[in-house]
Design a protein that fits this description.
The protein has 327 residues and is α/β, with parallel strands linked by helices. Helix content is 35%, strand content 18%. It is built from 13 helices and eleven strands. A nine-stranded mixed β-sheet has the order 3-2-1-4-5-6-11-9-10, sandwiched between helices. A two-stranded antiparallel ribbon has the order 7-8. The structure holds beta-D-ribofuranose (BDR) and calcium ion (CA). The site of calcium ion (CA) has 9 residues, from helix 1. The site of calcium ion has 9 residues, from helix 1.
C-alpha cells in the first residue's frame, strides 16, 4: 500500500458478480479503508444492485459499511442491463439470502459527498460501474474534488470493446457520464478491458475457495465459477478454466499500484450516435498528426491508462486478502 498507510476508499458499483469480487477484496485487504459503497444501475436494476451489495457485505463480515442507492438510469440512455452475463439477479443466481439491513436513508450522491468531505485523508474513488452517480456528484457538488486523491475507474478499452466492437460496457451504458468523469480535474487511472480481462484466478484456486467453510471465501469461489475466463491469451487454462477477477483488479490497482504499468495519455469518449458511441479513444501516437497540424490541438483529458498488468501478482494479492492464511 502506498506510504504504508491505509487508503480511504469509496466504491461505486453495479454489483454484479465481479463487483462482488471487488467488494470482498476491499473489505479484507488491510491497506484499504472502505468507507462507503454507492450503487448505480448497470449490470442489473439499481434496486437489485443495492440488494446484492448489502448481501455481499454481510457475507464478507462487513455489515456496517454505509450503502446508498443511486441513479436508476443513465443521464441520456435507457437502462440496458447485462443479466445475460451476471444472471437474472445480477449475482450469478446463487440463491443468496436477502440482506438483513436496509440501505442508508440518503441517496448515493449525498452519501458520496458526505463521506468524501468527512474522510481524514483524501479519498480514492473506485467506480466499477457506469459513471452516472459520479457525474451527478461532480456536477452537484464540485467541491468534493478537494478531498479526492484520485479516481481509479474500471471502464473503457484501448483496443477492443465488449458491449460493442469498440465500447466497453460501463462507458457505453452512460457515455455522457464518462465524459464528465474524464474532466473531473483530479488524477484519473483507467483500468480498462485491456487489463481487466487478463487477471484470471486458476481453476484449482477456484475449487479450493468453493470448498471453504468460511462464508466470504466460499462466496468468492462460487462467484468466480460464474466467470469462466473465456479465450485464454496465455494458453495456460487448458481444460480447467479459472475465473476472471474483473472489477476486483481495479481495487488491486489501488492496493498495489506497482502491479500495473500505466502511461499518461489523452483520452476522449465518443458521444456521437452510431457505431463508435461509448468508445474511449486513447491517443497513443508518438507525435501530432495532420489533424492537429492543420486544425490545432483540441483540449483533451490526460488519463493514466493501464496498459499492462502483472497477472500472477494480482491473483496472489487478491487470494491472500480474501482467503487469509491457508493451513
Ligand atoms: C464491466 O461491465 C460489467 O459487466 C462488469 O461488472 C464490469 O464492471 C466490464 O465491461
Ligand atoms: Ca461492474
Amino acid at each position: 500500500m502506498p506510504n504504508g498507510r491505509t487508503v480511504p476508499v469509496i466504491i461505486d458499483c453495479d454489483t454484479g458478480v465481479d463487483d462482488a469480487l471487488a467488494l470482498l477484496f476491499a473489505v479484507r485487504h488491510p491497506g484499504i479503508d472502505l468507507r462507503a459503497v454507492t450503487c448505480v444501475a448497470g449490470n442489473t436494476d439499481v434496486d437489485g444492485v443495492v440488494r446484492n451489495t448489502l448481501t455481499v457485505l454481510e457475507r464478507a463480515g462487513a455489515p456496517d459499511i454505509p450503502v446508498a442507492r443511486g441513479a436508476q438510469r443513465p443521464l441520456v440512455e435507457q437502462v440496458r442491463t447485462a443479466r445475460h452475463v451476471h444472471g437474472a439477479d445480477g449475482m450469478g443466481d446463487l440463491g443468496l439470502p436477502a440482506p438483513t439491513r436496509a440501505p442508508a436513508d440518503v441517496d448515493a450522491v449525498t452519501l458520496l459527498r458526505r463521506e468524501i468531505l468527512a474522510a481524514p485523508r483524501p479519498v480514492t474513488l473506485i467506480p466499477t460501474a457506469p459513471l452516472t452517480n459520479i457525474a451527478l456528484l461532480l456536477r452537484t457538488h464540485p467541491e468534493v474534488t478537494r478531498n479526492i486523491e484520485r479516481i481509479v475507474f474500471m471502464g473503457g478499452a484501448v483496443a477492443t470493446g465488449n458491449a460493442t466492437p469498440v465500447a466497453e460496457f460501463n462507458v457505453w451504458h452512460d457515455p455522457e457520464a464518462a465524459a464528465v468523469l474524464l474532466t473531473a480535474g483530479v488524477p484519473i487511472t483507467m483500468y480498462g478491458l485491456d487489463v481487466f480481462q487478463r487477471v484470471v484466478v486458476p481453476g484449482a484456486d477456484v475449487r479450493r475457495l468453493r470448498a471453504s467453510t468460511e462464508p466470504g471465501a466460499r462466496l468468492a469461489g462460487d462467484l468466480l465459477a460464474h466467470r469462466p475466463s473465456g479465450p485464454d491469451p496465455d494458453g495456460t487454462d487448458g481444460d480447467d478454466p479459472g475465473g476472471g477477477l474483473g472489477d476486483a483488479g481495479a481495487v488491486c490497482a489501488v492496493a498495489d499500484p506497482a502491479g500495473i504499468s500505466t502511461r499518461l495519455l489523452p483520452v476522449e469518449v465518443s458521444l456521437a450516435p452510431g457505431p463508435s458511441r461509448g468508445q474511449t479513444i486513447v491517443d497513443r501516437r508518438p507525435r501530432p498528426g495532420e489533424s492537429e497540424i492543420h486544425e490545432g490541438a483540441r483540449e483533451q483529458a490526460l488519463v493514466d491508462v493501464a496498459l499492462d498488468v502483472d497477472v500472477a501478482r494480482y491473483v496472489r494479492l487478491w487470494l491472500t486478502a480474501v482467503e487469509g492464511d491457508r493451513p
